[in-house]
Write a structure and sequence with these properties.
The protein is mainly alpha-helical and 116 residues long. The chain has six helices and no strands. The chain is rod-shaped. 10% of the residues are buried.
Length: 116
Amino acid sequence: MEELYRKYHVWLLRIAYNIIDDWDLAADIIHDAFLKYLEQNDSIIIRNPKSWLIKCVVNRSLDQRKLAWRKFRVYIEDLSVFGKIFHMNYEENDAVSCALRWLTKRERTVITLRDI
């Protein structure tokens, strides 16, 4: 098992990082995949451990990315201030506000959210 870990650890870490963009979470996913491999290896015969580990890491990484997106979406939907941002009246004498009036509603939203 140590040989397998040394051989594929860095490679699997890069795969997980490319999907979720977080080194610590990627390392946790790799460790979970190797633990699952140990558990599965006793009950079933895994003929190609490299393929099995890759599939496990990719699936866990995609699940983690979906979970993070759901948490972010709920957070944005729960903001009570969020609705006020879109209907904000800009002051006419402010130079930034004058510039924002020339933008479309969607462009104003992007600029406002970026500043928040």
